[in-house]
Structure formats: C-alpha cells, structure tokens
Please model this.
Amino acid sequence: MTQERHILVTETDLDRLQRLIELHGDGRNAELVEMLEQELARAEVTSAQEVPPDVVTMNSTVVFEDEETGAHRRVTLCYPQDARSDEGRISVIAPIGSALLGLSVGQSIQWPVPGGRTRTLRIVAVPYQPEAAGDFHL
Model:
C-alpha cells in the first residue's frame, strides 16, 4: 500500500473479493476492507488459467520474509470465514493478508501493521497455488 507495484489478481478472485467488500465494507473491519479495495483497484486482472504459478492468489500457501527481522513465515491466504491464525490461515482482510495478495516471488511491499509500524515483506516462495494445481473451484 505504501508503494506502487505490479500485482495480479484472477477474475474469479476479484469477483469473490468484491462480494466480500460489499458484505464487510461497513462493518467493524471497514478500514481493513478499504485497504483491500485499494489493492484491488491497482491490480491487473487475468484469467485463472493464465496466472503465473509464482503469484499469490486466494487459497495459496506463501512463504514470506519480514525483511526487518529476517524471519520467514508460511501462511495460507484465505477468506475471513476460513481464517485460523493458529493453523497459519490468514484472512485476506487482515493487514498482512491484503499485502500478500497478487504479489509474486521476489516482490517486496512495505505495509502498515497495528501499532503504527510498517513492515517490509518479501515473497520467498509460493509452494501451493490453486490455479497451478488445477484447483479452480476453491
């Protein structure tokens, strides 16, 4: 959010995320939903069949590095109803979730997190992407 960079979103993810924004845009997570909406506004949209396998799409498993600490974390980007932080399932409307969406391996982003801080996250790997695995209906 703090820097312009190229992100890719599939048509299917965009449709589903726009419905999510409509449902949650006025709720207690309105500010987080707005951050997601801003990310989607700058995204390039592609078909699920044409998205490169190293791009973080919905339900992808991604390994990212916090460039400040060097710590790596493996998470699965999911919809709010499927989020389970203790299982590494991060909601797309969580600050880090919306930061990861659409990035590809090697890309970094500076992203505000609770407490007024900013973290720089770099995508290290996308070990699982539904589209690359042929799972188009997740």
